[in-house]
Amino acid sequence: MDSRDKSNPSSEAETVAHKPTPSSGASSSRSRSGGSGSHYRSQPSSHGGGERLAPGLLVAGRYRIVAMLGKGGMGEVYRAEDLTLGQEVALKFLPRAIAEDPTFLERFHNEVRIARQVSHPHVCRVYDIFQGDGQLFLSMEYVDGEDLGSLLKRIGRLPGDKALEFSRKICAGLAAAHDRGVLHRDLKPGNILIDGRGQPLLTDFGLAAMAGEVEDIRSGTPQYQAPEQRAGKEVTARSDIYSLGLLLYEMFTGRQAFTGNTLAELDAQQKLGTVTSVTSIARDVDPAVEAVIARCLDPDPAKRPASAIAVSAALPGGDPLAAALAAGETPSPELVAAAGTAGIPLKVAVACMLAIFVALVANLFLASKSSLMSRVPLDLPADVLKLKAKEFALAAGYTDRPADTISGFFTNEPMLRYLNDKFSRADRDIMLAAGTPVAIGLWYRQSPRPLVPVSAGNAVTMADPPGNQLSNMVSVILDSKGRLFSFGAAPPQVDDGKDAPKPVDWGMFLKAAGLDEAALTPVAPARIASVAFDSRVAWTGTMEGAPKIPLRIEAASWKGKAVYFGIIGPWDRPTRMFAPTVTLTQTILQWFYVSLFLLVVLGSSVLAYRNWRIGRGDLNGALRLAFGITALQIVSWLFGGARVLSASMLSHFVTAAGIGLFQGLALGLAYLALEPFVRRRWPHALVSWARLFSGKFHDPLVAGHALIGITIGVVWSLVFEAESLTAEAYGALPAFSWVGTLSGVRSITSNVLDVITQALSIAMGSLFLLFLARLVMRRDVLACGFFVLITTAFAVLSSANPWVDVGFSLVQYTFFTWILLRVGLLPTVLAIIVSSYLPTMTMTTDWSAWYATPTIFATLIALAGGLIAFRWATHGKRLLGDFLDG
User: Fold this and answer.
1) Active site positions, annotated
2) How far apart (Å, rounded) are the C-alpha atoms in residues 834 and 830?
3) Is it the case that residue 49 has pLDDT exceeding 50?
4) Which helix (H) or strand (E) is 136 found in, with range?
5) 535 and 594 in contact (C-beta within 8 Å)?
6) Which pLDDT belongs to residue 442?
7) DSSP structure class, residue 465
8) C-alpha gyration radius of the chain
């Protein structure tokens, strides 16, 4: 391109050359930066002895001129020897006639400023700018080779494999410029150098500008300009994509896409899109290449590929991630998102769907037989138990209409441990089947004012708010058969002295508890209730169905109304008198988790700040993750904590939102800190994750990886059930599910949302440990082995059956690491989510039972998720035909 084109866009000539080549012709040697669109000969004699600088001349006391390489409207380029560094360079001198022109001088400085911002193996490197002794020049890397334009003129078109190779590398160079906000604006064959190793290099940033700062929109070579650029409307990265499409067309066909002789003809051809088919010119070209070029040449910028990386990813064959890693680069988030396959094979999708179905059925039967729920009678629905508790409160004399009531289920773990330690497995299961003592029960609370938890952000529980907080606040606990296990009530705060103490009909309480008063022995009371009382009684005996277990029944009353009744077993400790026992192992684990938390948060903050400062982290992805976690926690609180409007509800909401914001911020910082490292070391692990975060929810690869993750999660939960059965065979407790899921869909939903947050936390924490291990050990195998061993060690330390869990943990964490690094972060997170929430649900094979809701909910989530992922992953495929075809 001549100086007219670069300096004054309004002076464009009406006649356009079909193949614009500079008057100096093809060159055999060029600088890597090109030199403003001109071609340069390596032989000084070709310029008729008109060199500005003679060979051997010393410039700036450092560079010895060897020969002129070329001459163009924007200056002369010389090959020179850098005497300081002992290497050859190219020097580009601005012509004296325009060196004093402020406009040209500013353009020259701008070229250097912009070119130095882009560092990439397939982009020219500009070193520095010098001014003195009446000379103004820049130094740049010297490369012995020729430009793509002259090569195409000599050979016609590139062979298909070479054209694909060049296309990917040019895309990578252009993407590097766009990542720095640089628009090239003059992409054409003449500005692509081919060095002595046969590598294409993007050069000539004489017209380059920062995105959003372009003033001379029409500047450039007309044949390679986008319609919006020629019309003077705008210049964006998609304008360069259009020029890239024209460049690819020429490489694969050896011809220019548009051959108009005038600007008007070019405009008409571009508007009509009259481009000869690539495959009609070169029949060996893959149709996918033609489709990519057609998208690049769409007149509407919005319909073109979003980036040069997207163009590269759409080309057939090749691995842009591998190419970036081979070049020693960290692939950008856009490159990661654009890499990878279009989806998963149909046979894999079908196999995953079958595995989900089989594993869900197997998990359903196994969990329903191995869990505690299968050992305890649950004949009475939650509403019936709640009604019984309410009726008993009325019978006990608390007749005022409550302002608020709430109920839930609990598991009596201390009692279960006692049974497990003192009795055989058979005797234990007999007692559990009889429902005595209580293993799973319902707690019911009523209050004259709305029940609001003291712990802000939490839900109302058996102990929050405290039972003595308000007068006439009542608590009733029943076993699964509706028998009374515990009763508590708060007496009036002020004693008016009107009512005299009177006896309480404790026989009603004993009968409600399923105890025969005649078989009990009255004894002196020993337990002191936490509320005021004026009378106490106590008995000892045994419970029906558990004659070998000694029980103690304590009761207290105030002015003739019961305020306390409780069945106390050998497993019940006076918790108000003794601090909880903490073992050395528990202390080690607590310190480990606290240290790990601080290490992850503080370390992530430092790394995240560093990545943000140097522009290396995926800030948009981190913000989306932080916002998503915060939103999840708020919604979880709304389902699990928010119940009634109250004066303190706003305060609780703010606290819950603050907790969610902290979790979101912590995970966002961890992601910003770790994502560049993973992108550098294991970029394939982030492909589907990056696509999901870019909003491509229906993307076949995202759906395929989601399907794989759900499959792994369902199978993994089956392994957990097998581990529980094995551990129980060696003396462990039956598998516990979270009985809170019996309280309804709200509790189930809150539980699943919490599990999602926990899964993301586990994934980020695991990545951080892998990062530290890789940093120290410098080998993937060693780092992964250390991670597996350390996580297994701490899992075993917290296990009641270490010899059983050590084998399962080794397999589990090895598989977890393999999935994370080889398949991806997205399927790993989904696998953790599914394998975490399924075991927490109460499972039964009797879907007509009142407690089947969690079973149905859990099964439908996994099954529906799998079916949706399968549908999107196989979109547009003929299932039977494609499956049989492979």
Assistant:
1) 186
2) 6
3) no
4) strand 135-143
5) no
6) 94
7) S
8) 38
